Amino acid sequence: DIQMTQSPSFLSASVGDRVTINCKASQNINKYLDWYQQKLGEAPKLLIYNTNSLHTAIPSRFSGSGSGTDFTLTISSLQPEDVATYFCFQHNSGFTFGSGTKLEIK
Amino acid sequence: QVQLKESGPGLVQPSQTLSLTCTVSGFSLMDYSVHWVRQPPGKGLEWMGRMKYDGDTYYNSALKSRLSISRDTSKSQVFLKMNSLQTEDTAIYYCTRSLGARGYWGQGVMVTVSS
Fold first, then answer.
1. Which pLDDT tens digit goes with each residue over B43-63?
2. pLDDT confidence tier of residue B102, bands split at 50, 70 and 90
3. Among B39, B45, B97, the residue to mutate for chain A (most A Cβ within 10 A)
4. How far apart are CA A98 and CA B55, in angstroms?
5. Which of B38, B85, B77, B33 is closest to B60 using CA atoms?
6. Do B47 and A96 touch (CB under 8 A)?
């Protein structure tokens, strides 16, 4: 089974900061990596699919990059409404979520 | 309009079997896969298993011995059964249509395992 190691587990940043969240796969997953945002009390929402494709209606400050085993979610300018937990998800071989990154505003 | 709604008992006793139903509308189970994902309180997401559009199933290896997913296409329902429940199975259980760009999530159903 493919393991997904997500870092950091917790992140505190200021409004306007550039924020990066990382995910490392235990083996090559090609481009099949998605990013989800989950706000308190809500179901997860897809932000990015297949490494770098922005989902419908997602603000352009969110972007994804990477390939193979190393992937990054970037928020170019953090906004208050971005407070949430973020999960990566691989679907190249089986299906696996990362452990999550809780993002707060300083 | 695509909708998925999970239903089932809110409370299950330890060692018993959990039975959940995902009722879908706005699409056909013969055109899209349905996945089950769960989330223990305050913890991360765990992918559980999938009913593919062609009827094939695929399970998380950690749950495979306890988990069964089936469907009734005529009723637009997908079923999850998991046996030998323990307290660590307490979670919100979600069903989703596909995952990724064509995905839709249900609102989830909270299941507590307790005597």
1. 999 999 999 999 999 999 999
2. confident
3. B45
4. 27
5. B38
6. yes
